[in-house]
Amino acid sequence: MSNLVVLPIIIPLLAGVIVALFNKKVAVTRTLTKLFSILNLGVAAYLSWIVFTTDSIILETGEWVAPYGIILVADPLASLLVLTTNIVAVACAFYAPHSLSLRQETHYFYAFYFFLITGVSGAFLTGDLFNLFVFFEVLLMASYALIVLGGERIQLRESIKYVLINLFSSILFVTAVAFIYGAVGTVNMAQIAERVQIQGQDGVLTTVAILLFFVFATKAALFPLYYWMPKSYIVPNTVVSALFGALLTKVGIYSILRVFSLIFVHKLELTHETFIWIAGLSMLFGVIGALSTNNIKLIIAYNIIPAIGFILMGLGVFNQDGMSGSVYYLVHDMIIKTALFLIVGVIAYVAGTSDLRKMGGLIHYYPGLGWLLFVAAFVLAGIPPFSGFIGKLLLLQGTLSEYEVVITIIALISSLLILYSVMKIFIRGFWGEKDETGKYEKKSTKGLIGPIVYLLAFSIFLGVGAEWIVPSVESISTYLLDPEIYIESVLKE
Amino acid sequence: MEIIISILAGVLITTGIYNLLQKQFLRIVIGTVLLSHGAHLFILTMGKLKRGQPPILTDGVTDYTDPLPQALILTSIVISFGITSLLLVLAYRTARENNTDNMEELRGTENE
């Protein structure tokens, strides 16, 4: 039974190896990729169903009892995120064949795609801090390969910066793990949490906590560590950008959420108070970045930063509503960011450019695409009844009940500006006179629209079906606010 | 002994950071290598060095070597070895394609 936990990690790993073997036969790899990603989605859905209806599942690998062996923990948060990851992955698997060039496909795109999913699922499921580092490296290695796929001049230029910044923060991660091991003598997260509780979170441990925050904040692209992110996320193919935007930064913010709700929760006035300010600055700077540019992919890439800010804000206030909001917003944002990246990918493809100044009047040729973007912008900005609204409502209830008025105002203003930044694509790209020069001859968007509709359907379901989803999310936040449950379920004392 | 190794790790990390801040690709790559060496030495120090005992834990035995840091280092060394080789290839290709190995000339201002 508990072996179920390892399946969302093993299946993509095996699938990656298998599709690498059939590399030259593109038709075979495409079919296999779709089949395996749907299989993995099924397994993830079954896993989360079991976890939500019964209890967390703990896998002690090799029968080594909890603090000694490596453990995998499928608790409600982890399994929900693995499920969301796979929802996103399926959309990308179906979008990829229509978006990539044949050369990119035969250069092992599908294999690295599966390795990326392996790393992301592993990072969500692991219950061991060093193992988290290893899974980070797995997903980063896959992302290094994906970001250079195609090997254009500009791509190489941005990816070397991407690799360097991630390598640097990984080394800091190892150092932080070493510090923790020196201070509490374990790398098992539940045991670290227990020992920090007993020893008390003294100056050394708080410093290590901030070092860890620095590492995860670099991966999650928070203010002031986001500078590497937007430009490097726009250089690869759209489907790769979508995967990065949906998954990589979210693994960073998930780690912050986990570490600062489980382990370092004894100096809230020092750590979590700071988070609120960092969250506010991330929202402002991210949205300013999004408004500053005319490149449609860059607009969406900059919009990742305020989303991470929103999630961190919920953690910062650290109460029931705030944490529910963070978890809800995390799931919502993974889905909608993928959808938006895929949409701008189609727009850039049909318009032949990603520069807003060079397009206009697309609505006459692609009305469906225009309305999809319109709906996606509403979902992102949080117009009821879509999912962004529920997430922001929970978050703002959380901040207001702690009387954090300034951050609430910043959050509301930045939501409005997010709406404007995405609507700018709609207004400048889709409105306007019909272009008669034949510049936008009707190009086939076959296969590109399906995955977007599928993702938006999930987003709309998250918003309209909030009555069914919010209770589960609130049970997750109750769970996160009480570290004892996690510690007991892992160490079984 | 721990103090000496800690200082050595500190020196390695300092020189690593200095090299990382240079403009030339090769220096940057060497910087990351030094940095990771520093971090690895640091993990080893955290498990206390050279107690001269086997890594076996039985009831009643108080003298034993901690095997965990060595397992952690091994994993970490393999990873950083892989990334260094990738980084070398990437740096070479980038320098070839962009006709420069100076970071300042690789800023990219298309979207500003």
Number of helices of chain B: 3
Strand order of the largest sheet of chain A: 1-2
Largest sheet of chain A: 2 strands, antiparallel
Briefly note the structural class of the backbone of chain A.
Answer: mainly alpha
| First-residue to last-residue Cα separation of chain A | 21 Å
Structural descriptors:
heterodimer; A: mainly alpha; 76% helix; 2% strand; B: 112 residues; mainly alpha; Helix Hairpins; 0% strand; elongated
Write the layout of secondary structure elements.
The complex is a heterodimer of chains A (493) and B (112).
Chain A: H1 7-21, H2 26-53, E1 57-60, E2 71-74, H3 76-99, H4 102-106, H5 109-125, H6 129-148, H7 153-184, H8 189-199, H9 203-220, H10 229-234, H11 238-262, H12 271-292, H13 296-317, H14 320-351, H15 367-381, H16 387-401, H17 405-430, H18 449-464, H19 466-481, H20 483-491
Antiparallel strand pairs in A: 1-2
Helix pairs in contact in A: 1-2, 1-5, 2-3, 3-5, 3-11, 3-14, 3-18, 5-6, 6-7, 6-11, 7-9, 8-20, 9-11, 11-13, 11-14, 12-13, 12-17, 13-14, 13-16, 13-17, 14-15, 14-16, 14-18, 14-19, 15-17, 15-18, 16-18
Chain B: H1 2-20, H2 25-46, H3 68-98
Protein name (chain B): Multisubunit sodium/proton antiporter, MrpC subunit
Pfam families (chain B): Oxidored_q2
Keywords (chain B): Cell membrane, Membrane, Transmembrane, Transmembrane helix
Q: How would you characterize this protein structure?
A:
The complex is a heterodimer of chains A (493) and B (112). Chain A has helices at residues 7-21, 26-53, 76-99, 102-106, 109-125, 129-148, 153-184, 189-199, 203-220, 229-234, 238-262, 271-292, 296-317, 320-351, 367-381, 387-401, 405-430, 449-464, 466-481, 483-491; strands spanning 57-60, 71-74. With 493 residues, chain A is mainly α. Chain A has one domain (2-491). In chain A, 60% of the residues are buried. The model of chain A has no long low-confidence stretch (mean pLDDT 90). Chain B is mainly alpha-helical. Chain B has a single domain (2-51, 66-102), classed as Helix Hairpins, CATH 1.10.287. Helix content of chain B is 64%, strand content 0%. Chain B is built from 3 helices and no strands.
